[in-house]
Design goal:
By secondary structure, the protein is of the alpha+beta class. It has a single domain, classed as Acid Proteases (Cathepsin D, subunit A, domain 1). 24% of the residues lie in helices and 35% in strands. The chain has 4 helices and 13 strands. The strands form 3 sheets. Strands 1, 2, 3, 4, 5, 8, 9 and 10 form an 8-stranded mixed β-sheet that branches. The chain is globular, with a radius of gyration of 17 Å.
């Protein structure tokens, strides 16, 4: 998905409605060069992130806009900032989806949310999503291949 964060157009945002922390990667934040927003240190590690625990560098609250023109909504969203290589620029999770009252459809690659008396929508790009997924699999390397090889058709090994 693509959204606007602190007036920057940010592509390759992963929507994950299973986790409880919105994430912005340090490399993305560095490119944005945002000023006037307070960076708060936090010491709680993120569990299960990318298959292992990772320490957050802190938290920043930034305006996040979803939609376009008359179907746009903006909310202040807290992001945990992490410094790890990734195929994505950010991850929106349950807190942001709840704030926007958004509904995500993985099958349709759409995110819908109320806007005034209408409905706004973000559409994903299947080609970009596939490239991001392939990037994640490559970064996981051998570990990802082992997990995939554990799936086998049939009744027994």
């Amino acid at each position: 998905m693509t959204a606007t964060i602190a007036n920057y157009y940010v592509a390759k945002i992963f929507i994950d409605n299973r986790s409880s922390v919105n994430v912005l990667f340090k490399s993305t934040l560095d490119q944005m060069k945002v000023e006037g927003f307070e960076f708060e240190p936090i010491s709680t590690p993120l569990y299960g992130f990318a298959g292992h625990d990772i320490q957050s560098l802190g938290q920043i609250v930034l305006p996040l806009s979803l939609g376009t023109d008359l179907r746009r909504v903006t909310k202040m969203i807290a992001f945990a900032v992490v410094d790890t290589p990734t195929a994505y620029n950010g991850i929106l999770r349950r807190p942001a989806l709840k704030d926007f009252r958004a509904v995500a459809s993985t099958y349709h690659q759409k995110l819908k949310f109320p806007v005034g008396k209408g409905v706004g929508a973000l559409c994903g790009d299947q080609k970009v999503a596939r490239r991001c997924y392939e990037g994640v699999v490559k970064k996981e390397g051998k570990r990802a291949r082992v997990e995939v090889n554990m799936i086998r058709k049939g009744r027994s090994w």
